[in-house]
Amino acid sequence: MMTNQREVIMQKSGIKQNVETFLSCDKPYHEADTVIFGAPFDSTTSYRPGTRFGSRAIRAESYGLESYSPYQDKDLEDIAVFDGGDLELSIGRVDLALEAIEAYTAQVLAEGKRPVMLGGEHLVTLGAVRAAAKAYPELAVIHFDAHADLRQEYLGATLSHATVIRRVWDILGDGRIHQFGIRSGEREEFRWAAAGRVAMHKFDLQGLEETIAALKGRPVYFTLDLDVLDPAVFPGTGTPEPGGLSFMELLQAIFKLKDLTVIGADLVELSPVYDQSGVSTAAACKLLRELLLAIS
Fold first, then answer.
1. DSSP string of 259-286, one letter each residue
2. If one looks up domain 22-295 in CATH, what number appears?
3. pLDDT 10s digits, 94-121
């Protein structure tokens, strides 16, 4: 049956097609203010792979949620979000994968929409930030993570999920990256950050309110590595690091983003295979719902 014939039948019957998107994010592209897309890439993962399945798992499990948020008294049904599905990314060529992410992000931004990317490993952030920095020269980045990701190279590679924020710094320079929750990294990473290159807030979210106040009115890209959460509540990630945030601490922080001009965001490092209970994926779904509502 031709696609257009199928659509006509569906319209006449009043039955929706079973097209998998994130919960209620099925507005037409031309009407959307925000565009979700998946970046299923984990070729540089340093410990346990599997984040390439994160975006798919988030979509599938989102139907266990309501579209309404009682925390914010908002509903996904009331905002215009289009889910563009997953990009088809090169597995063996990191450069090509990043180029594809950058090109897609640039197109979304050029059309006046906000990109929200679902990883995938954290390196995918670099492709999106490349595009965002070109569109917004005054861009600042807020980064939640367990790991500093500030290495110059990892096992000889300068493009890695262990180097991603260092590569973002290469683009933005000093004083424009604000890190929170950092509790793991090489000694050199912490010393490099302490030299005034990035604003690193170790262990928790202290200083977030002051950072938000300082960045009001500026374009901000928000990158959320889910391993900022304590593995007791979020074991489904490739590099779990004890001593992290509680779910509610992270949720409350996301609500504060409403006071910023968030021009793009991502949510990365869910590796669903390492949590067969599905709790980690459910947490990622709920955080994505609240993020979309907070920044819209």
1. GSEEEEEEEE---GGG-TTSHHHHHHHH
2. 3.40.800.10
3. 999 999 999 999 999 999 999 999 999 9
